[in-house]
Amino acid sequence: MDSTERDEAARAFLADFRSMSTFGATTGGGVDRQAGTAADGQTRNWFRGLVEGHGFEVRYDAVGNQFALLELVPGVPYVAMGSHLDSQPLGGRFDGAYGVLAAAHAAIRLRAALADASAPAFNIAVINWFNEEGCRFKPSMMGSAVFTGKLPVEQVLATTDPRGTTVREALESIGTVGDFGLEVAAYLEIHIEQGRSLEDHGLSIGLVESTWGANKYEFVVHGEQAHTGATVIADRHDALLGASLLVAAAREIADEFSTDEHAVITSCGEFTVFPNSPVVVASRVDLLVDLRSTDHDVLAAADAELHRRVAAIEERADVSIERGAEHIWASKAYDASGMALAAAAAEELGLTYGTVRTLAGHDSTNMKDIVPTIMLFVPSVDGISHNEKELTRDEDMLAGVDLLTEVLRRVVGGDFVAGG
Amino acid sequence: MDSTERDEAARAFLADFRSMSTFGATTGGGVDRQAGTAADGQTRNWFRGLVEGHGFEVRYDAVGNQFALLELVPGVPYVAMGSHLDSQPLGGRFDGAYGVLAAAHAAIRLRAALADASAPAFNIAVINWFNEEGCRFKPSMMGSAVFTGKLPVEQVLATTDPRGTTVREALESIGTVGDFGLEVAAYLEIHIEQGRSLEDHGLSIGLVESTWGANKYEFVVHGEQAHTGATVIADRHDALLGASLLVAAAREIADEFSTDEHAVITSCGEFTVFPNSPVVVASRVDLLVDLRSTDHDVLAAADAELHRRVAAIEERADVSIERGAEHIWASKAYDASGMALAAAAAEELGLTYGTVRTLAGHDSTNMKDIVPTIMLFVPSVDGISHNEKELTRDEDMLAGVDLLTEVLRRVVGGDFVAGG
Questions:
Q1: Which residues are involved in binding Zn(2+) 2 (chains A, B) (predicted)?
Q2: What does the pLDDT average to over A304-311?
Q3: Are B241 and B317 in contact (CB under 8 A)?
Q4: Given an 8 Å threshold on Cβ–Cβ distance, is B240 in contact with A263?
Q5: How far apart are CA B76 and CA B98, in angstroms?
Q6: Residues making up the binding site of A
Q7: Across B251-283, where does the E strand assignment appear?
Q8: 3-state secondary structure of A63
């Protein structure tokens, strides 16, 4: 591209980004597009219109993953790029959405560049994965988990939100479901960092070298419903006390088990009290606790300590604590040759870059287990994420699209995996 | 009454109690009749039909208190008895409802007994107070608070439930609202104990000598929404951690500040997390904390410790804790002459009795501040309350109705307060 074309491409990306951010927009500058809601459906339809206008064909699979297909050479396999357009409640407008739009623009730019070059080795698909966030329907990364065979589709379609609506019903209500399937040769994803390491080091691009290991547990604390006024302390089986002690213990474990080399991060994001009435001792609390670390042994030690403490808390609060579903994923590396390819592309474009680890899960966490995968980050201001104040600067978004385009060019040209 | 009449009266009470317990009945043997719901409305209409069949007239005041009036002598003042027909979600079928039905039966029995005696000094009103429980609309004891001038009616009518429905709308939807007012000369209430002291001492009747002092606080813990996976511990402002530490601190204070003579009881019954998504650090938690004690000085020391700890928790969790509305009521004695009257009545009937304090608030807690009041308890099996398993045995319920009838006879005869 010459500089006029570059300016035009940048303007087009930023204009599309602004349009996209109006769907589910919140007054605080973020978006609320939980999976399968009307706002999610509107965003998906907008995206369909956008890419169809550029000659893509749009298809859906049984779990609502949205595939935008750009066929360059009939019959050759596909390189896929993607992320997700759904959001947290009161989430930011960059998380996921940036990556989907960046992928579409990278594909559009590459097709223009290829118009007068040799035939590419691959076709291109841009995927908007269903329900990456996992707030309305659990677990997170649902669409890519089904696509990669980690979750059975029937189980996922029968999963209900807190009001009892199933995934199947939600997908039918927004009309973005089908029976499409796609064979993918390689996968690329770009995402905002949601942390501060790029910003702290003054870098434009992060090459993701591994995911952190994570152990996620659903706990149910069982107490006994009683009158808060009339029931003496000795007679109480207070589920809220038990659950609160578990939240405090999780933080203490993060503080105690982090080493100089490896941090332990613990969280509790969901915590629901029953019956939650002002004058009633809680009979039950459902909560999620997760532990993450880059190091397997550190994570295992922290995990053992958590379970030791559960027993002590049961005694202290005179409750029983049941461990329900768990999701465990080990710390796992991304493809080293993909990182080298991305580093060479960044150097060619004169972009500063470094290697990073991702604490958060992404759809590429699933995809890297089935195909060679490259994961790229752009900076997040102050590392703020899952928050309406989430921000990635225009120049960082544009640098990311430039790099993704160059990486895609190399991958489609056969530099990463052998072509069809 | 002769023994046939007594048997007939007992059967009638138990039959009415069973009918009443079908409204809002839960599968666990309790009831769910939160204030202003359809189930509350149905119970109120059933009660209206019951007492109208016995010749009472039913009226409502502006806040939905239901007055069943039994005029014995035109023009003389009223002695009121009452309690509440609303319940906790998944509450027991005795709490409140027993007292309303016992009062109606006591009035019906006394009228029959008076038929061939001298003219009584008072008429009789049975009051079903609106929203004693305070779970759907806060605060508790709402109807009696308005009646006794402690809360302004307009403020109460504008109070909303978590879905935004106002008290005014809820009352209009169930149709039990009016503009009635009543001057009351004395107030009697009978209630289940919701504790174990009567059962532990093998007593049939409790004469309530005082309320416990209670300090109730609404706290809002303000944190900052963030991604649970990607946000390092040092960057977190975790409202859920702050709120959990507050729950744990409240329990520690109960343990530390209870003395041999005076217990401190602390509770947190309502605890709501925002946005409550699995992968989001909580931005806000709303919670209620209350401290209760029979001793003013012990309560004050415990309260000071709670507020000292709030400051430490703000620092530990890097959050700010805002104190919202508070409800403070001092430990306060019931009328000593009323206790003596009830003790004499119990002796005449051969019922075992003792003095007790009430940890829980009751409508009589409000009424005793404006008129001479007598509060009676019957035993609760295992002290279980605000629970579907709440149970008071038939013989204990019947003994309570017998005693309330005898106490009413004496009060209506002018033995407690001067007649009109």
A1: 95, 133, 386
A2: 96
A3: yes
A4: no
A5: 28
A6: 84, 95, 133, 191, 386
A7: 264-267, 271-274, 280-281
A8: coil
User: Distance between CA atoms of A207 and B85, rounded to whole angstroms?
Assistant: 65
- Per-residue b/e over B386-409, b at no fewer than 16 CB within 10 Å? bbbebbbeeebbbbbbbbbbbbbb
Residue B218 belongs to what H/E stretch? strand B213-222
Q: Do A279 and B386 touch (CB under 8 A)?
A: yes
Q: What is the DSSP string of B299-351?
A: HHHHHHHHHHHHHHHHHHHT-EEEEEEEEEE--EEPPHHHHHHHHHHHHHHT-
Q: What is the ipTM of this complex?
A: 0.71
Q: Which residue has the tokens 């906790």?
A: B88
pLDDT in tens, A63-111: 999 999 999 999 899 999 999 999 999 999 999 999 999 999 999 999 9
Residue B399: both structure tokens together: 């003994």
CA distance B392 to chain A (A): 15
Q: Are the beta carbons of B279 and A360 separated by less than 8 Å? A: yes
Interface test with B, best of A194, A231, A262 (most B CBs within 10 A): A231
Task: Please report the number of interchain residue pairs, chain A to chain B, with beta-carbon separation below 8 angstroms.
Answer: 238
CA closest to A358 among chain B residues: B230
- Which among B278, B361, B385 has CB closest to A226? B385
pLDDT tens readout for residues A13-70:
999 999 999 999 999 999 999 999 999 999 999 999 999 999 999 999 999 999 999 9
* B135/A280 Cβ within 8 A: yes
Q: Nearest CB to A279: which of B134, B233, B240?
A: B134
Q: Which residue of B has its CA nearest to A233?
A: B265
User: Which tokens in the block code for residue A237?
Assistant: 């089986």
User: Which residue ranges of B make up the annotated binding site for Zn(2+)?
Assistant: 84, 95, 133, 191, 386
Paired tokens of B3:
């023994």
Q: Which domains does chain A have, with CATH numbers?
A: 3-212+332-412 (3.40.630.10), 213-329 (3.30.70.360)
3-state secondary structure of A381: helix
Annotated binding site of B: 84, 95, 133, 191, 386
Tell me whether residue A75 is exposed, middle or buried, using C-beta atoms within 10 angstroms of its C-beta: 0 to 12, 13 to 18, 19 or more.
exposed
